[in-house]
Specification:
Helices cover 18% and strands 32% of the residues. By secondary structure, the protein is α+β, with helices and mostly antiparallel strands.
């Protein structure tokens, strides 16, 4: 009996360990991941020198050209290097297979989940490694963002700067032919801010897991909406498995929103008693994912 119990225990432990997902890039760098709401992010800045096809990433550096910084702070990339010369948001770019350079919209989903941009930076920052006062830092999100600084390739003289003061991270959102959107977090603020600046600058990169069609199908399978033929109420169950906030809208046949909810409860009901007879569509949005279900309201 003891032997059987030991084997069962080891099996459970093994399953637990492998459930703690890590990601490998072409160079063999190992990244930890963190799931926040419906998004999964790398917990560390990208440090690869090769794209996933094995080709070299151009213009990539470490802060002060000090290779010892790479393991902790990652590397610094021009926007085109990070994007592998694409201008399409959410492209894989320099990220490992199955991941992509997070867009400005995806950052906004994260910030909203953490309570809004004004406080989200503090919830992403590590509590050590920043210049004082490191305002608002709790790292309650698990993003573990460190102040890796930047390489200023726009103003002369070109130089490394802002180390231990700012985390400056490219998004995959292009503004125009010269500029793209960046996210930055400062030592003296809890905010996660935006700035549109020149693509030749060299910043950090954070990758986010690419959502596939099967992920959307899993969302629909997990959240239960019933019945499809209703007189008074529709029940929605199992929302907490995907985190908050969860947006729910009900549309009538001409596309008007007749119910608009921000829901934080696990299970709840929508009152249909005051709606007219006919078809309606319930749309559930969780972070960047959504699905819709058609129902019929009878009298």
């Amino acid at each position: 009996m003891k032997k059987i119990f030991t084997l069962l225990f080891l099996t459970l432990v093994s399953s637990f360990v492998f459930s703690q997902a890590t990601v490998l890039d072409y160079d063999g760098n190992v990244y930890n991941t963190v799931t926040i709401g419906t998004q999964t992010w790398l917990k560390e800045n990208l440090r690869s020198t090769h794209y996933s096809d094995g080709s070299l990433i151009p213009d990539v550096v470490t802060y002060d050209n000090n290779e010892s910084y790479a393991a902790t702070y990652g590397r610094l990339y021009t926007w085109y290097a990070a994007m592998k010369n694409s201008t399409v948001a959410k492209v894989q770019g320099a990220c490992p297979d199955g991941w992509h350079v997070a867009s400005a919209d995806e950052w906004l989903v994260l910030e909203n989940y953490l309570g809004g941009s004004a406080v989200a930076g503090g919830k992403m920052k590590t509590t050590t490694g920043w210049k004082s006062p490191n305002t608002g830092a709790t790292n309650s999100s698990g993003m573990s963002i460190l102040p890796g600084g930047e390489y200023d390739a726009w103003y002369s003289p070109n130089q490394f700067r802002l180390f231990d003061e700012y985390a400056v991270i490219w998004t995959s959102t292009q503004i125009n032919t010269q500029k793209a959107r960046e996210k930055f977090i400062a030592f003296e603020s809890a905010e996660c801010s935006i700035y549109d600046w020149y693509k030749v600058m060299k910043y950090s990169v954070r990758c986010i897991k690419t959502v596939t069609t099967s992920d959307n199908e899993n969302l629909e399978q997990k959240i239960n909406i019933y019945p499809t033929l209703v007189k008074d109420q529709v029940r929605i169950l199992n929302l907490n498995d995907y985190g908050n906030p969860i947006f729910i809208k009900v549309y009538n046949v001409i596309g008007e929103v007749v119910v608009d909810l921000l829901q934080n409860e696990t299970d709840f009901t929508i009152d249909f008693s005051n709606l007219n007879e006919g078809f309606y569509v319930i749309k559930v949005t969780v972070g960047a994912d959504s699905f819709s279900k058609k129902i019929y309201k009878s009298i």
